[in-house]
# Entry
Amino acid sequence: MRASIRAGLSGVAAAAVAIGAAELVAVLTGALSAPLVAVGGVVVDHVPAPVKDFGIQVFGVHDKTALLVGTGVLLAGYAWAVGVLARHRWPLAIIGIGLFGAVGAGAAITRAGAGPAAVLPSLIGAVLAVLVLSHLRRGWETAEPGPAEENAGARDAYGEGSRRRFLRDLGIVAAVAAAGGVVGRMLTSRRAVDAARQAVALPVAAGPPPVVPAGAQVSGAVPYVTPNSEFYRIDTTLVSPQVDPAEWELRIHGMVRNPITLTWDDVLRRPMVERYVTLACVSNEVGGDLIGNALWLGTPIKDLLDEADPLPGADQVVQRSVDGWTCGAPTSVLRDGRDALLAVGMNGEPLPVAHGFPVRMIVPGLYGYVSACKWITEIELTRFADFDAYWVPRGWSALAPVKTQSRIDTPRKGASRRAGPVTVAGVAWAQHRGIAKVEVQVDDGPWQEAALAPAVSSDTWRQWSLTWPASAGRHTLRVRATDLDGVTQTADRAAPDPDGATGWHAVTVDID
# Structure
């Protein structure tokens, strides 16, 4: 094996040990202080909006995984280069490893709630990387036989022995790195809140949950109620915050006459209601699936705001997550009587950790980036003129009412059907306004009104269907919806930024 290849592999192995050791240290200093997570978090916070949209379009709910994998690949390439550099420029290689440690430490210390200890995973990892690379480096220096081993037999024996020693050492280092990473993840999981979540006994709502009317589910459309495991997740955190409800508090402060601090037990003692609410991500493209409907259990946020008694001019309710993320919703919207909830339950169970356990916000009719704060820990009354929440400086609208939209779920794009009656079905939504009408167009023909299924309320999506007498050939189907305010969705195509996508969803199908 050539010495340059040994050097590159050694650099990668040293970086792996650094990452594995950092994961172990991060068990004590917090999951967000691990270098990959910390650096990835900085990337998420500073990535331009078009790049963020591209990532969601390509990877969907797996965008964070793609970012971590991509960061790992870039780190491996960097580590390979450092290893090769170490052959002839050892001091420069040490500087390269130091730069790795400094970047990780700098990223970790900027995370919300980070203390001085947040730099330890990256710094300790960098020190171990230097030691490991120094040890493996000895194997490169004996990669070729010296003058005393000039005959072919001695050279072969020497090379084989050297290769075996290097591969042995490399295997040991790889095992140590893997063990560190796996054990670190396992210990982090033990510190996670899964056990606390499973021990939660949700309070009983003041009344029975709304009944899903018969016929709300249309054949061919997505489930009317989205299972927790299938509910979309789009947020800025790479690792879901692990919040112990026993230590959780919510502060309501700012421009209020009566600041309030609530514990977990305080929230559970408050009056609870259950409501079906459909949430939609502003990044959802026309026809996309970043939308879901669930039964939420929570206490009305209006009552909490009334108790806090906002001062005149406090037109924005800023919500802060434990990881520092912010969103801002109009105060008037949260007090206009809609079922805006401080939610603790989802589809009959405590909130999943990935969806905000122990407490999150649910606001019908607003896109999530201005209203659906997960892992919420703070509510501040302020003015839009005085504070821009996380996404506003990045080019997104401060006010984000959900736009009237519709989608064809069956037949899917590129599907084939036999000539004759074909069911066209899907969903439409205009949360807090409701859907009045859905129409389907075949090719460039007249718009045909679809049959609307009943819905629990105007805060959920509504399913629809149409029986189409399909003839042979290739056809384009389009759908549009009209809300109860009489507004029909526009045909003009627009990207999600700055305040939600527009346009008619269309699919092309082949009829035999």
About this structure: The domain at 405-511 is CATH 2.60.40.650 (Immunoglobulin-like). The first strand starts at residue 249 and ends at 254. DSSP finds eleven helices and 19 strands in the chain. The radius of gyration is 28 Å.
